[in-house]
Amino acid sequence: MVRYADDLIFFADSESACKEIHEFTKDELGKIQLSIPEFGPTSKSRIFAPSESAEFLGVALKKNGTAYVLEVPDSKIRKAGGNIKSYTATEKVMKEKFTLAAVQSRIDAAIAGYVDAYAFANNVAQVERWLLQAKRECMHALITEMLGIDISKLSLGARTFLGLA
């Protein structure tokens, strides 16, 4: 099996050390006919200040007080929420012949998958809250559109029963 990896991240205590690491890596990779981009404003190769958030492999390394933490970037949270909200497309629901219970089950499985995948992240609770809100919005839209029910006229108990509270 051959696995190709093209993402690298290095940590150093100065900008000059970062440049030395870059040159060393460029030289070593060159020996096996591989390359890395030069530093530049549009390049994937760049130097981050200690206070800057650096995104790598879909997570952000951020300074939090005197330590660093891994967080799910807002862009990834929005994308996951968009995946959840894709179930509001009634054409998709009808084409796949999903029941309301099946939609809820699929959304719950997707949320569990995201939460498990990001369990290491400092902001996993925020991710889960955002995805649960996306689920509520999705279910609200489906119930309103598919069943013609005005959710605002339902009691708290009824909204809770439907998973909308």
Give structural notes.
- The protein has about 160 residues and is mostly helical.
- The protein folds into 2 domains: about 15-70, no CATH class; about 75-160.
- The chain has helices at about 15-30, 75-85, 90-95, 100-115, 125-145, 155-160; strands spanning about 55, 60-65, 65-70.
- A hairpin with a 2-residue loop joins strand 1 and strand 2 (about 60-65).
- Helix 2 runs parallel beside helix 5 and helix 4 runs antiparallel to helix 5 (about 125-145).
- The chain is elongated, with a radius of gyration of 22 Å.
- The mean pLDDT is about 90.
Task: Report a brief summary of the structure.
By secondary structure, the protein is mainly α. It is built from 6 helices and 3 strands; from the N terminus they run αβββααααα.
Task: List the topology elements.
Layout: H1 15-30, E1 54-56, E2 59-64, E3 67-71, H2 74-85, H3 90-95, H4 100-117, H5 124-147, H6 156-161
Antiparallel strand pairs: 1-2, 2-3
Helix pairs in contact: 2-5, 4-5
What are the defining features of this structure?
mainly alpha
